[in-house]
Design a protein that fits this description.
452 residues, Aldehyde Dehydrogenase, Chain A, domain 2, seven-stranded mixed beta sheet, 18 strands, binds nicotinamide-adenine-dinucleotide
């Protein structure tokens, strides 16, 4: 691992990656490799957990293409030196900010959207002029292999290299003196990464998880709200970091909500019999999810197929914050439904828990919308929708508090992998001696007069 990091540092120090045309060429190469290998990539993700070609494109590759295209178009602008005002003390001088790459970066990916979560940070790192070592999640073995083959056969290891492996390999990587670590995964492992990075004072971005609430208020358009919510929850069999983890429904809407949710699931293709209903990533996770189901509280679903690692969309009702399913992030196709009749009360409950990665509020009432936005701190979210905010790279994407540190996508990704170097550039033709000894009363008066 150390040899590889040294190799990348040596390459970085040649300044090759500082050249914008080099970065654009690498991004174009990545784009054409992905396009030429869509079929191979789909076969791998299908083998791992039966993702359909439709979802492989819409929820993985299309986001990568968008980020690549945007970076190619904007990288020159993003990396331009920015002139800023100079303060009076420094007159006469110019001041500017130079965006510069951080250096050798490590990206650690999660398994649930294996291509997107590994390659989107890599795109940002490359656009910003860094070298990259990418460690995808080892759980979806076929996608990890596919990315390793694609990248390692086509990029120079001194610039971009995929290292496959699990805990031992990641632990060995975490001992190296990288210039940046970008991690996507659980809160628990996020803490391990943060501690390892602290030993070498390495800046980190942590894209973590948590329990993201969805609030169904009494003033929402229930039909379309349920349609959007059910899709967002059960896409990828609920294995989405920003999926609504649980829903709190106003008491007056509960019965209608449940009836519509059932109808919507049945109208969708989230069925364990369907060939494109995504599998649970492994047996361990399926067992973890099954243990969260309280049979007495199941309103709908609960069917499972152990051999094929499938769990049908499951709705549990009459849930309280004390239930087992409400203790940790679910990360699977189980939707607990809680009810409320006092908005302040439910917001207090949400606020007393770790800050979620996302929050969704379904309402047509402006005051309710403002109240939720004002009171709840969350990474990013949506009003009258769920999940779709991730597609808008103009907003950046990331968590807050326990759900993460930092953000990426679009220019936010570029910033995440850059240092902004502020430079004061002074001519030598004037050097007032006001700051120099002797420190007279007159000088002090003048300084006070000028600077307050
Ligand atoms: P995870 O934390 O188990 O694994 C993530 C990565 O860390 C993997 O590459 C894994 O190999 C590595 N890893 C695991 N244990 C390690 C250890 N002890 N030391 C060093 N490295 C280790 O997470 P996961 O199961 O892959 O993903 C699920 C979690 O990720 C959920 O909490 C989900 O919310 C979160 N997530 C967040 C985002 C986001 O963008 N914020 C996206 C997807 C997933």
């Amino acid at each position: 691992m150390q040899e590889l990091v040294d190799l990348q540092k040596t390459f970085f120090n040649t300044n090759a990656t500082k050249d914008i045309s080099f970065r654009i060429a690498q991004l174009k190469k990545m784009q054409s490799l992905l396009k030429a290998n869509e079929e191979v990539l789909h076969r791998a993700i299908y083998a791992d957990f039966k993702k359909s070609a439709f979802e492989n494109y819409t929820a993985e590759l299309s986001l990568l293409y968008h980020d690549i295209q945007q970076a190619i178009k904007k990288v020159k602008k993003w990396s331009a030196v920015k002139r800023v005002k100079t303060n009076l003390v420094n007159f006469p001088a110019k001041s500017y900010i130079i965006p510069e790459p951080l250096g050798a970066t490590l990206i650690i990916g999660a398994w649930n959207y294996p291509y997107q979560l590994s390659l989107a940070p890599a795109i940002a790192a490359i656009a910003a002029g860094n070298t990259v070592i990418l460690k995808p999640s080892e759980l979806p073995v076929h996608t990890s292999n596919a990315m390793a083959k694609l990248i390692n056969e086509n990029f120079d290891p001194s610039f971009f290299k995929v290292v496959e492996g699990g805990v031992p390999e990641t632990s060995a990587l975490l001992k190296q003196a990288f210039d940046k670590i970008f991690f996507t995964g659980s809160v628990q492992v996020g803490k391990i990464v943060y501690q390892a990075a602290a030993k070498n004072l390495i800046p980190v971005t942590l894209e973590l998880g948590g329990k993201s609430p969805a609030i169904i208020t009494e003033n929402c358009d229930l039909k379309v709200s349920v349609k959007r919510l059910i899709w967002a929850k059960f896409l990828n069999a609920g294995q989405t970091c920003i999926a609504p983890d649980y829903v709190v429904v106003h008491t007056s809407k509960k019965a209608e909500f449940l009836a519509l949710a059932k109808k919507e699931i049945e109208a969708s293709n989230f069925l364990i019999e369907a060939d494109n209903y995504v599998q649970i990533i492994n047996q361990k996770n399926l067992e973890r999810l099954l243990a969260l189901i309280d049979k007495d509280k199941v309103f709908y679903g609960g069917n499972h197929d152990i051999e094929n690692r499938l769990l049908s969309p499951t709705i549990m009702t009459d849930i309280t914050f004390e239930d087992k399913v409400m203790q940790d992030e679910i990360f699977g196709p189980i939707l607990p439904v809680l009810e409320y009749d006092n908005l302040d009360g439910i917001l207090q409950q949400i606020k007393s828990r770790p800050k979620p990665l996302s929050c969704y509020v379904f309402t047509n009432d402006k005051k309710t919308k403002q109240k939720v936005l004002n009171e709840i701190s969350f990474g990013g979210g949506a009003i009258n929708d769920a999940l779709m905010h991730i597609t808008n790279s103009h907003m950046g994407f990331g968590g807050v508090g326990e759900s993460g540190i930092g953000s990426y996508h679009g220019e936010y990704g570029f910033k995440t992998f850059s240092h902004y170097k502020g430079v004061l550039d002074k001519p030598t033709w004037l050097e007032p001696n006001i700051k120099y000894y002797p420190h007279t009363n007159f000088k002090l008066k003048l300084i006070k007069l000028l600077f307050g």
